[in-house]
Amino acid sequence: EEPAATIVEMLKDITSYEGEDAVFKCRLSRETTQDVQWFLGDVPLQSNEMNEIRVQGTCHTLILRKVTLEDCGPISFKVGQHTSTA
């Protein structure tokens, strides 16, 4: 069984203007097959035309495309028992 990954680089708070893309990055202690999940408030996010979720090695990135006022709120990244919020 693989050891649990931990979050070594937390999310940072960002401010963006309506119509811009908002980019959130999180780095894990290791590459993992564990379930990772992004949230806006309590809503789990999926990759679609509005959100792009990327994984490159230990770096996990969420891009919210052309944000609106409705996108305002806490963004969370969860892996196992660990959570980072911005």
TrEMBL record:
Pfam assignment, any one: I-set
Keyword check for Protein biosynthesis: no
InterPro entries linked to this entry: Ig-like_dom, Ig-like_dom_sf, Ig-like_fold, Ig_I-set, Obscurin/Obscurin-like_Reg
Stretches of the chain forming a coiled coil according to its record: none
Localization (cell): Cytoplasm
Protein's UniProt name: OBSCN protein
Flavoprotein recorded as keyword: no
Protein keywords: Cytoplasm, Disulfide bond, Phosphoprotein
All residue ranges annotated as the Ig-like domain in the record: 3-86
Principal subcellular localization: cytoplasm
Gene name of the record: Obscn_2
GO CC terms in record: cytoplasm
